[in-house]
Design goal:
Elements lengths: L2 H9 L14 H7 L14 H10 L11 E5 L5 E7 L2 E8 L2 E10 L4 E6 L8 H10 E5 L1 H11 L7 E3 L3 H9 L2 H10 L1 H22 L6 E4 L10 H7 L1 H13 L3 E5 L7 H7 L4 E5 L9 H8 L4 E6 L1 H4 L5 H13 L7 E5 L9 H4 L2 H8 L5
Parallel strand pairs: 7-8, 8-9, 9-10, 10-11, 11-12
Antiparallel strand pairs: 1-6, 2-3, 3-4, 4-5
Length: 370
Protein backbone atom coordinates (compact mmCIF):
# COMPACT_ATOMS: atom_id res chain seq x y z
CA UNK A 1 0.00 0.00 0.00
CA UNK A 2 1.10 3.58 -0.52
CA UNK A 3 1.17 5.92 2.47
CA UNK A 4 -1.89 7.75 1.15
CA UNK A 5 -3.75 4.45 0.77
CA UNK A 6 -2.92 3.60 4.40
CA UNK A 7 -4.39 6.88 5.63
CA UNK A 8 -7.51 6.41 3.52
CA UNK A 9 -7.92 2.86 4.82
CA UNK A 10 -7.95 4.10 8.42
CA UNK A 11 -10.57 6.74 7.62
CA UNK A 12 -12.63 4.17 5.71
CA UNK A 13 -12.67 1.78 8.67
CA UNK A 14 -10.30 -0.75 7.11
CA UNK A 15 -7.02 -2.13 8.45
CA UNK A 16 -3.92 -1.13 6.45
CA UNK A 17 -0.77 -3.24 6.21
CA UNK A 18 0.87 -0.94 8.77
CA UNK A 19 0.16 2.22 10.75
CA UNK A 20 0.13 5.31 8.48
CA UNK A 21 2.83 7.97 8.86
CA UNK A 22 1.87 11.67 8.76
CA UNK A 23 3.77 14.77 9.86
CA UNK A 24 3.31 18.52 10.02
CA UNK A 25 6.85 19.62 9.17
CA UNK A 26 5.93 23.18 8.29
CA UNK A 27 7.31 24.90 11.39
CA UNK A 28 10.48 22.78 11.44
CA UNK A 29 10.98 23.60 7.76
CA UNK A 30 10.61 27.35 8.21
CA UNK A 31 12.88 27.51 11.25
CA UNK A 32 15.67 25.20 10.11
CA UNK A 33 15.77 26.19 6.46
CA UNK A 34 15.47 29.89 7.36
CA UNK A 35 12.32 30.41 5.31
CA UNK A 36 10.81 33.87 5.86
CA UNK A 37 7.11 33.73 6.63
CA UNK A 38 4.19 35.61 8.05
CA UNK A 39 0.83 34.52 9.33
CA UNK A 40 -0.85 34.91 5.96
CA UNK A 41 0.27 31.34 5.24
CA UNK A 42 1.82 29.77 2.18
CA UNK A 43 0.73 31.39 -1.08
CA UNK A 44 1.58 28.33 -3.19
CA UNK A 45 3.40 25.02 -3.13
CA UNK A 46 6.56 25.13 -1.00
CA UNK A 47 9.00 22.93 -2.92
CA UNK A 48 11.41 22.70 0.00
CA UNK A 49 8.65 21.37 2.24
CA UNK A 50 7.61 18.89 -0.44
CA UNK A 51 11.21 17.68 -0.67
CA UNK A 52 11.32 17.04 3.09
CA UNK A 53 8.17 14.92 2.92
CA UNK A 54 9.53 12.98 -0.03
CA UNK A 55 12.81 12.37 1.79
CA UNK A 56 10.96 10.90 4.78
CA UNK A 57 8.01 9.28 3.07
CA UNK A 58 5.61 11.08 5.41
CA UNK A 59 2.13 12.17 4.34
CA UNK A 60 1.45 15.93 4.35
CA UNK A 61 -2.03 16.85 5.51
CA UNK A 62 -2.14 20.42 6.90
CA UNK A 63 -0.39 23.80 6.55
CA UNK A 64 -0.82 24.13 2.80
CA UNK A 65 -2.58 27.47 2.88
CA UNK A 66 -6.30 27.97 2.35
CA UNK A 67 -8.33 26.14 -0.28
CA UNK A 68 -10.91 28.92 -0.35
CA UNK A 69 -10.91 32.70 0.04
CA UNK A 70 -12.97 34.64 2.55
CA UNK A 71 -13.78 38.29 1.99
CA UNK A 72 -16.46 40.70 3.17
CA UNK A 73 -19.33 41.07 0.75
CA UNK A 74 -20.54 44.13 2.64
CA UNK A 75 -18.86 47.30 1.28
CA UNK A 76 -19.06 48.84 4.76
CA UNK A 77 -16.70 46.13 6.11
CA UNK A 78 -13.00 46.29 5.24
CA UNK A 79 -10.02 44.17 6.27
CA UNK A 80 -6.26 44.54 6.05
CA UNK A 81 -3.40 42.27 7.18
CA UNK A 82 0.31 42.89 6.76
CA UNK A 83 3.65 42.17 8.42
CA UNK A 84 5.76 45.23 9.16
CA UNK A 85 8.98 45.22 11.21
CA UNK A 86 8.21 41.79 12.66
CA UNK A 87 4.65 42.71 13.68
CA UNK A 88 1.73 40.97 11.97
CA UNK A 89 -1.14 43.42 12.17
CA UNK A 90 -4.76 42.74 11.26
CA UNK A 91 -7.41 45.44 11.11
CA UNK A 92 -11.13 44.91 10.56
CA UNK A 93 -13.22 48.03 10.06
CA UNK A 94 -17.00 47.84 10.47
CA UNK A 95 -19.75 50.41 11.14
CA UNK A 96 -19.93 48.94 14.66
CA UNK A 97 -16.26 49.56 15.37
CA UNK A 98 -12.69 48.67 14.42
CA UNK A 99 -10.90 45.50 15.53
CA UNK A 100 -7.09 45.35 15.64
CA UNK A 101 -4.77 42.43 16.33
CA UNK A 102 -0.98 42.56 16.71
CA UNK A 103 1.34 39.55 16.80
CA UNK A 104 5.10 39.89 17.27
CA UNK A 105 7.69 37.62 15.67
CA UNK A 106 10.04 35.77 18.03
CA UNK A 107 13.17 34.57 16.19
CA UNK A 108 14.02 32.02 18.90
CA UNK A 109 10.72 30.14 18.64
CA UNK A 110 10.14 31.26 15.04
CA UNK A 111 6.57 32.12 15.92
CA UNK A 112 4.27 35.08 16.46
CA UNK A 113 3.09 35.77 20.01
CA UNK A 114 -0.09 37.78 20.53
CA UNK A 115 0.67 41.30 21.72
CA UNK A 116 -2.84 42.63 21.26
CA UNK A 117 -5.93 40.43 20.96
CA UNK A 118 -8.30 41.22 18.12
CA UNK A 119 -11.23 41.41 20.54
CA UNK A 120 -10.86 43.55 23.64
CA UNK A 121 -14.12 42.67 25.37
CA UNK A 122 -17.88 42.38 25.04
CA UNK A 123 -17.99 45.93 23.66
CA UNK A 124 -16.34 44.58 20.47
CA UNK A 125 -18.83 41.75 19.94
CA UNK A 126 -21.13 43.74 17.59
CA UNK A 127 -18.20 44.44 15.25
CA UNK A 128 -17.28 40.75 15.22
CA UNK A 129 -20.86 39.79 14.40
CA UNK A 130 -21.04 42.31 11.55
CA UNK A 131 -17.78 40.99 10.14
CA UNK A 132 -18.91 37.36 10.34
CA UNK A 133 -22.25 38.13 8.74
CA UNK A 134 -20.46 39.84 5.83
CA UNK A 135 -18.06 37.03 4.89
CA UNK A 136 -18.39 35.28 1.54
CA UNK A 137 -16.55 32.12 0.52
CA UNK A 138 -14.91 31.44 -2.86
CA UNK A 139 -13.47 27.92 -3.31
CA UNK A 140 -9.91 27.68 -4.71
CA UNK A 141 -9.53 23.98 -5.37
CA UNK A 142 -6.70 24.63 -7.81
CA UNK A 143 -4.46 25.29 -4.79
CA UNK A 144 -5.24 21.85 -3.37
CA UNK A 145 -4.62 20.20 -6.73
CA UNK A 146 -1.24 21.90 -6.98
CA UNK A 147 -0.11 20.43 -3.65
CA UNK A 148 -1.46 17.02 -4.62
CA UNK A 149 0.44 17.09 -7.89
CA UNK A 150 3.63 18.08 -6.10
CA UNK A 151 3.33 15.51 -3.28
CA UNK A 152 1.82 12.61 -5.20
CA UNK A 153 1.05 9.65 -2.91
CA UNK A 154 2.20 11.68 0.10
CA UNK A 155 -0.72 14.11 -0.18
CA UNK A 156 -3.83 13.78 1.97
CA UNK A 157 -4.90 17.41 2.47
CA UNK A 158 -7.44 18.20 5.16
CA UNK A 159 -9.76 21.10 4.33
CA UNK A 160 -10.01 23.47 7.29
CA UNK A 161 -12.86 25.50 8.73
CA UNK A 162 -12.12 28.62 10.80
CA UNK A 163 -12.36 28.52 14.59
CA UNK A 164 -15.76 27.76 16.12
CA UNK A 165 -17.41 30.53 18.10
CA UNK A 166 -15.89 29.43 21.42
CA UNK A 167 -12.52 28.64 19.86
CA UNK A 168 -12.50 32.01 18.09
CA UNK A 169 -12.51 33.73 21.46
CA UNK A 170 -10.82 31.40 23.91
CA UNK A 171 -8.01 30.07 21.72
CA UNK A 172 -7.20 33.09 19.63
CA UNK A 173 -8.97 36.44 19.78
CA UNK A 174 -9.93 37.25 23.38
CA UNK A 175 -7.97 34.92 25.65
CA UNK A 176 -9.00 32.37 28.25
CA UNK A 177 -9.77 34.61 31.23
CA UNK A 178 -11.75 37.28 29.41
CA UNK A 179 -13.69 34.65 27.44
CA UNK A 180 -14.79 32.78 30.56
CA UNK A 181 -15.83 36.01 32.30
CA UNK A 182 -17.80 37.11 29.22
CA UNK A 183 -19.60 33.76 28.99
CA UNK A 184 -20.84 34.05 32.58
CA UNK A 185 -21.24 37.84 32.90
CA UNK A 186 -22.81 38.55 29.49
CA UNK A 187 -24.42 35.28 28.32
CA UNK A 188 -26.87 36.90 25.88
CA UNK A 189 -24.17 38.87 24.07
CA UNK A 190 -21.90 35.84 24.20
CA UNK A 191 -24.55 33.63 22.60
CA UNK A 192 -25.11 36.13 19.80
CA UNK A 193 -21.40 36.17 18.98
CA UNK A 194 -20.93 32.39 19.16
CA UNK A 195 -23.96 31.86 16.95
CA UNK A 196 -22.72 34.42 14.42
CA UNK A 197 -19.32 32.73 14.13
CA UNK A 198 -20.77 29.22 13.92
CA UNK A 199 -23.42 30.27 11.40
CA UNK A 200 -20.70 31.81 9.24
CA UNK A 201 -18.73 28.56 9.39
CA UNK A 202 -21.76 26.51 8.41
CA UNK A 203 -22.28 28.78 5.38
CA UNK A 204 -18.64 28.15 4.43
CA UNK A 205 -19.15 24.42 4.89
CA UNK A 206 -22.21 24.42 2.65
CA UNK A 207 -20.20 26.25 -0.01
CA UNK A 208 -17.33 23.74 -0.02
CA UNK A 209 -18.91 20.49 1.13
CA UNK A 210 -19.16 18.94 -2.33
CA UNK A 211 -15.56 19.78 -3.12
CA UNK A 212 -12.74 17.27 -3.74
CA UNK A 213 -11.77 16.37 -0.18
CA UNK A 214 -12.26 13.47 2.25
CA UNK A 215 -11.58 15.06 5.66
CA UNK A 216 -12.57 18.39 7.18
CA UNK A 217 -10.37 19.80 9.94
CA UNK A 218 -11.47 21.90 12.94
CA UNK A 219 -8.42 23.59 14.45
CA UNK A 220 -9.94 24.92 17.68
CA UNK A 221 -6.79 23.94 19.65
CA UNK A 222 -8.92 22.13 22.21
CA UNK A 223 -7.46 21.45 25.67
CA UNK A 224 -9.76 19.85 28.21
CA UNK A 225 -8.02 21.74 31.02
CA UNK A 226 -9.18 24.99 29.39
CA UNK A 227 -12.24 24.20 27.31
CA UNK A 228 -13.99 22.07 29.90
CA UNK A 229 -16.83 19.72 29.07
CA UNK A 230 -19.25 22.21 30.62
CA UNK A 231 -18.08 25.04 28.36
CA UNK A 232 -18.02 22.74 25.35
CA UNK A 233 -21.54 21.45 26.00
CA UNK A 234 -22.90 24.96 26.50
CA UNK A 235 -21.31 26.64 23.49
CA UNK A 236 -19.86 24.12 20.98
CA UNK A 237 -21.40 20.65 21.21
CA UNK A 238 -24.39 21.30 18.95
CA UNK A 239 -22.18 23.04 16.38
CA UNK A 240 -19.68 20.16 16.27
CA UNK A 241 -22.49 17.64 15.96
CA UNK A 242 -24.04 19.62 13.09
CA UNK A 243 -20.72 19.83 11.21
CA UNK A 244 -20.28 16.07 11.64
CA UNK A 245 -23.86 15.39 10.50
CA UNK A 246 -23.48 17.42 7.31
CA UNK A 247 -20.12 15.84 6.48
CA UNK A 248 -21.28 12.29 7.11
CA UNK A 249 -24.25 12.91 4.86
CA UNK A 250 -21.73 13.45 2.04
CA UNK A 251 -19.53 10.50 3.00
CA UNK A 252 -16.81 12.75 4.47
CA UNK A 253 -15.03 12.70 7.84
CA UNK A 254 -14.35 15.19 10.63
CA UNK A 255 -10.96 15.64 12.36
CA UNK A 256 -10.48 17.92 15.38
CA UNK A 257 -7.17 19.41 16.54
CA UNK A 258 -6.69 18.74 20.27
CA UNK A 259 -3.61 20.82 20.99
CA UNK A 260 -3.31 20.02 24.69
CA UNK A 261 -4.82 17.74 27.32
CA UNK A 262 -7.11 15.14 25.74
CA UNK A 263 -8.30 13.47 28.96
CA UNK A 264 -12.09 13.66 28.98
CA UNK A 265 -12.26 15.35 25.58
CA UNK A 266 -11.90 12.06 23.69
CA UNK A 267 -15.20 10.70 24.95
CA UNK A 268 -17.26 13.85 24.53
CA UNK A 269 -15.89 14.55 21.07
CA UNK A 270 -16.65 10.98 20.02
CA UNK A 271 -20.24 11.46 21.15
CA UNK A 272 -20.50 14.48 18.81
CA UNK A 273 -19.65 12.32 15.80
CA UNK A 274 -16.01 13.39 15.46
CA UNK A 275 -14.05 10.79 13.47
CA UNK A 276 -10.43 11.71 14.23
CA UNK A 277 -8.44 13.42 16.98
CA UNK A 278 -5.42 15.21 15.50
CA UNK A 279 -2.36 16.16 17.59
CA UNK A 280 -3.24 13.52 20.18
CA UNK A 281 -0.40 13.90 22.70
CA UNK A 282 0.09 11.29 25.44
CA UNK A 283 2.28 11.17 28.56
CA UNK A 284 4.78 12.35 29.58
CA UNK A 285 3.65 15.67 28.11
CA UNK A 286 -0.01 15.16 29.11
CA UNK A 287 -1.78 12.77 31.45
CA UNK A 288 -2.98 9.78 29.40
CA UNK A 289 -0.72 6.95 28.30
CA UNK A 290 -1.37 5.71 24.75
CA UNK A 291 -3.25 2.69 26.15
CA UNK A 292 -5.40 4.93 28.38
CA UNK A 293 -6.14 7.23 25.45
CA UNK A 294 -7.35 4.28 23.40
CA UNK A 295 -9.58 3.03 26.22
CA UNK A 296 -11.19 6.45 26.63
CA UNK A 297 -11.55 6.97 22.88
CA UNK A 298 -13.13 3.58 22.28
CA UNK A 299 -12.32 1.40 19.28
CA UNK A 300 -13.70 3.62 16.51
CA UNK A 301 -12.26 7.11 17.10
CA UNK A 302 -9.08 7.65 15.06
CA UNK A 303 -6.13 8.79 17.18
CA UNK A 304 -3.57 10.70 15.10
CA UNK A 305 -0.39 11.81 16.86
CA UNK A 306 1.48 10.04 19.62
CA UNK A 307 4.87 11.76 19.81
CA UNK A 308 5.12 14.36 22.61
CA UNK A 309 7.21 17.43 21.78
CA UNK A 310 9.07 16.90 25.06
CA UNK A 311 10.66 13.72 23.70
CA UNK A 312 10.71 14.76 20.03
CA UNK A 313 12.70 17.96 20.61
CA UNK A 314 16.28 18.59 21.65
CA UNK A 315 15.54 17.98 25.36
CA UNK A 316 14.55 14.38 24.62
CA UNK A 317 16.76 11.37 24.00
CA UNK A 318 16.70 8.83 21.21
CA UNK A 319 15.80 6.14 23.75
CA UNK A 320 12.82 8.05 25.16
CA UNK A 321 11.73 8.91 21.62
CA UNK A 322 11.84 5.26 20.52
CA UNK A 323 9.90 4.17 23.60
CA UNK A 324 7.21 6.80 22.98
CA UNK A 325 6.79 5.78 19.34
CA UNK A 326 6.66 2.09 20.23
CA UNK A 327 4.05 2.58 22.99
CA UNK A 328 1.86 4.50 20.53
CA UNK A 329 2.23 1.87 17.82
CA UNK A 330 1.46 -0.92 20.29
CA UNK A 331 -2.12 0.36 20.55
CA UNK A 332 -2.71 -0.81 16.98
CA UNK A 333 -3.34 -4.23 18.58
CA UNK A 334 -6.38 -2.75 20.35
CA UNK A 335 -7.69 -0.80 17.34
CA UNK A 336 -6.43 -0.08 13.82
CA UNK A 337 -7.95 3.41 14.03
CA UNK A 338 -4.45 4.79 14.49
CA UNK A 339 -2.05 7.19 12.73
CA UNK A 340 1.50 8.00 13.82
CA UNK A 341 2.20 11.74 13.75
CA UNK A 342 3.67 14.44 15.93
CA UNK A 343 1.69 15.68 18.89
CA UNK A 344 0.89 18.87 16.91
CA UNK A 345 3.81 20.06 14.75
CA UNK A 346 7.28 18.59 14.61
CA UNK A 347 9.08 20.90 17.08
CA UNK A 348 11.65 23.15 15.38
CA UNK A 349 14.43 21.95 17.70
CA UNK A 350 13.91 18.28 16.83
CA UNK A 351 17.19 16.78 15.51
CA UNK A 352 16.85 15.69 11.90
CA UNK A 353 18.54 12.41 12.82
CA UNK A 354 15.64 11.69 15.18
CA UNK A 355 13.01 12.56 12.58
CA UNK A 356 14.76 10.17 10.19
CA UNK A 357 14.31 7.34 12.69
CA UNK A 358 10.54 7.28 12.17
CA UNK A 359 10.23 5.26 8.91
CA UNK A 360 12.32 2.42 10.36
CA UNK A 361 10.47 2.47 13.69
CA UNK A 362 7.10 2.23 11.95
CA UNK A 363 8.32 -0.59 9.74
CA UNK A 364 9.65 -2.47 12.77
CA UNK A 365 6.83 -1.88 15.27
CA UNK A 366 3.82 -0.73 13.26
CA UNK A 367 2.85 -3.63 11.01
CA UNK A 368 -0.39 -5.60 11.18
CA UNK A 369 -0.50 -9.38 10.86
CA UNK A 370 2.50 -11.66 10.65
Amino acid sequence: MTEKERVKAVFDGRTPDRVPFMLDLSHWYKKNLHVPFDLSGFRGVERGLVDLHRKLGAVSYVEMGGFYDLAPGDPAVRTRSATEDGVFRTEIVTPEGTLTEERVFNPQSYSYGIRRHLVGGVEDFPAVRRYMESLECTPRWERKRAWEEALGDLAFPYVQLPYSGLGYLISRNLGVEKTVYAAYDSPDEFRLLVDAVNSCNLRILDRIIDGPFDVLFLSDNLDSNVQSEGLFNAWSRDYYAEVARRLHGRGKKLAVHVDGEMRGALSWLARCGVDCIDAATPAPMFSLTPAQARREAGPDLILSGGIPATVFGAAGTDGAFTDAVRRWLDTRLDSPRLILAAGDQVPPDAPWSRIEMLPELIERYGRYGA
